[in-house]
Amino acid sequence: MDLSHCSLNSITVRAATLPELVDLAAEHGFGGVGLWRDSYADTGAAKAARRITEAGLRVTSVCRGGMFPQPTPRERARAHEDNLRAIDEAHALRADCLVLVCGPAHDRDLAGARARIEEGVAGLLDHAAEAGVPLAVEPMHPMMAADRSAITSLAEAVDLVERLGSPWAGLAVDTYHVWWDVALPRLMARAGSSIRTVQLADWVLPIHGQLSSRGMPGEGHIDMPGFVELSRGVGYDGLVEVEVLSDHWWSQPPALVARAAARALAAIADPAASAD
């Protein structure tokens, strides 16, 4: 891929400060950066936005909002307020979307958690519309149902977005979470224009930690060129993020990690290049 069609997510180079992240992205020719909220917590969203814009980059996603199921009304209210703040931060950063990691069930009640998630996203839509920030529900791999999200398949996420019926409710599609699905082509076609961000990380073995065992694109078992081609084919024309949560790569210097990410992405064919 042409790296101007790609985005370097802050979690991939977790040890980098925001200025270092921006410099690394610009140095390698990335078109943007994805930001976890801790990456700009010290500088603030407004100052971070200026730094990113001055470097000729854009913000492709902010991670995260969500965590809607909570055990008490007070905690649900606290989560809602934090989600409103996340939307405001994404607005200040002029981000393409706010990613929603929707949250797990409490007391083993998956059906109740999914209902709370739908209510929670619906309760943010007016604020998202006022701020001009699309919300992107991220379906997670089923192994994360107990601690990250009760939305554990692309089918569930597409159904949810269709029920919400708002242009401000969309999807974040990450290879690591959805690559295994036999219905992936059909579900991606259904998702279509509701896809707000596409994120790449590879499935490498052995899995030593469900959150932080990911690989650079091309290191593992996922057909990355096929996934990018599928995403482009259903209409996604935004930047493609490299978002690699990896104990291995986090142990390396950020400059080395950014270089590895750039090389991995450059090796992937992108149909968007022929459209330029």
- What is the element string, with H for helices and E for strands? EHEHEHEHHEHEHHEEEHEHHH
Q: What structural class do you assign from the helix and strand content? A: alpha/beta
Give a quick account of the main beta sheet: strands, pairing sense, barrel closure.
Answer: 8 strands, parallel, barrel
Strand content: 15-25%
Overall pLDDT confidence? 97
Radius of gyration, in Å, reads: 17 Å
Order of strands, widest sheet? 1-2-3-4-5-6-7-10
Q: How many beta-strand runs?
A: 10
- Tell me, briefly, the overall form: globular
Identify low-pLDDT runs.
Answer: none
- With helices defined by DSSP (H or I, 4 residues minimum), what is the helix count? 12
Distance N to C terminus: 12 Å
- The percent of residues in helical segments reads 40-55%
